[in-house]
Write a structure and sequence with these properties.
Number of strands: 3
CATH class: Alpha Beta
CATH topology: hypothetical protein PF0899 fold
Length: 85
């Protein structure tokens, strides 16, 4: 459940960034540091689940595993595109 909440928060933040720039969210780039509570495979599975749950459509996910980096999950960048419509 903890990971689900974190993923929802991460995707909502990415959505907000895209909206503020007048663009559509197309994907995210994240770093999983030493404090991340999941491995890249589990993170990808949760990402797919939450994007579907939030109705975000297909999004790309780029994961950088950094077990020596002293952080958790970090949103490094958002991938933007033309607004859907």
């Amino acid at each position: 459940m903890h990971e689900h909440g974190l993923m929802t928060k991460l995707l909502r933040s990415a959505e907000r960034e895209a909206r503020e720039r007048g663009a559509a969210l197309r994907g995210v780039v994240v770093r999983l540091g030493a404090m991340a509570s999941s491995d890249p495979d589990h993170f990808r599975a949760e990402f797919e689940h939450v994007t579907e749950e939030l109705g975000l459509g297909p999004l790309t996910l780029e994961v950088h595993a950094a077990p020596d980096h002293p952080a958790g999950v970090e949103l490094l960048s958002v991938v933007l595109g033309e607004p859907r419509g």
